């Protein structure tokens, strides 16, 4: 299965009031493995960023002034995501901007070029109800280093989210558990880390012989074949 982890940075919070996309980052996953085939573009939004947004991403108007406009990268983006399952953290936000940009060009909404969308924020809330489920919080929870994340960036955030998504959906590979353990007497609640892989140790020849002796005794006691032998691989 081909999946694309996607993130955007924007000039503000609302595309309907004129805010625009200034960065798109995509990370490709194929059959649950990162391929290194990524898509990353800075975009000239033809307007300034809000002060609050600028504080988050740090992409100034001067830096973006010589970058391509969205309509110049839209077809390349559409080809990259075509038919893939899209993974986004807080999907309604990014999709609102992407759909708006595509509609400005007279194209079908962005969502129609993808097979489906997974919102990792929704998934995280289902797995960890009542807890913080921001990207930073999930990185901490799953042991993914984000020390290099000083500002938000679309490609960096997509790379982190890809690692979070793979960890969050790995099933029982490592029997990860999200339980709370209260320290004795301290009243501090901690999250237990992931458990190690299960080690399966086969029985030795002596152990198998002892087991067979036990079954033989049970057979003698019931004057026939004990129930256990009917389900034993050696039975």
Domain unit count: 2
Radius of gyration: 26 Å
Q: Give the name of the CATH superfamily of the largest domain.
A: Ribonuclease H-like superfamily/Ribonuclease H
Largest sheet: 6 strands, mixed
- The portion of residues assigned to helices is 25-40%
For the terminal residues, how far apart are their CA atoms? 42 Å
Count of DSSP-assigned helices: 9
CATH architecture descriptor of the largest domain:
2-Layer Sandwich
The secondary-structure element order is EEEEHHHEHEHHHEEHH
Shape: elongated
Number of strands: 8
Highest-level CATH class of the largest domain: Alpha Beta
Strand content: 15-25%
Poorly predicted residue ranges = 172-190
Write the CATH fold name of the largest domain.
Answer: Nucleotidyltransferase, domain 5
Structural class: alpha/beta
Mean pLDDT: 86
Keywords: DNA replication, DNA-directed DNA polymerase, Exonuclease, Hydrolase, Magnesium, Manganese, Metal-binding, Nuclease, Nucleotidyltransferase, Transferase
Protein name: DNA polymerase III subunit epsilon
Function: DNA polymerase III is a complex, multichain enzyme responsible for most of the replicative synthesis in bacteria. The epsilon subunit contain the editing function and is a proofreading 3'-5' exonuclease.
InterPro entries: DnaQ, DnaQ_proteo, Ribonucl_H, RNaseH-like_sf, RNaseH_sf
């Amino acid at each position: 299965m081909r999946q694309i982890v996607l993130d955007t940075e924007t000039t503000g919070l609302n595309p309907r009031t004129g805010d625009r996309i200034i960065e798109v980052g995509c990370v490709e996953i194929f059959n649950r493995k990162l391929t290194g085939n990524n898509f990353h573009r800075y975009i000239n939004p033809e307007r300034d960023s809000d002060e609050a947004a600028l504080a988050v991403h740090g992409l100034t108007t001067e830096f973006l002034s010589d970058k391509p406009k969205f309509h110049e990268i839209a077809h390349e983006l559409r080809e990259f995501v075509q038919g893939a399952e899209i993974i986004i953290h807080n999907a309604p936000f990014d999709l609102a901007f992407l759909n708006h940009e595509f509609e400005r060009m007279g194209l079908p909404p962005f969502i129609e070029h993808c097979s489906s969308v997974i919102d990792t924020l929704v998934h995280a809330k289902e797995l960890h109800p009542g807890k913080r489920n921001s990207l930073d919080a999930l990185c901490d929870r799953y042991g993914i280093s984000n020390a290099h994340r000083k500002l938000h960036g679309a490609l960096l955030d997509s790379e982190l989210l890809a690692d979070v998504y793979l960890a969050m959906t790995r099933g029982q590979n490592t029997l990860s558990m999200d339980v709370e353990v209260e320290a004795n007497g301290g009243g501090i609640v901690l999250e237990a880390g992931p458990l190690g892989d299960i080690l399966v140790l086969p029985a030795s020849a002596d152990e198998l012989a002892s087991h067979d002796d036990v079954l033989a005794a049970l057979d003698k006691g019931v004057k026939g074949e004990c129930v256990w032998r009917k389900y034993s691989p050696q039975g």
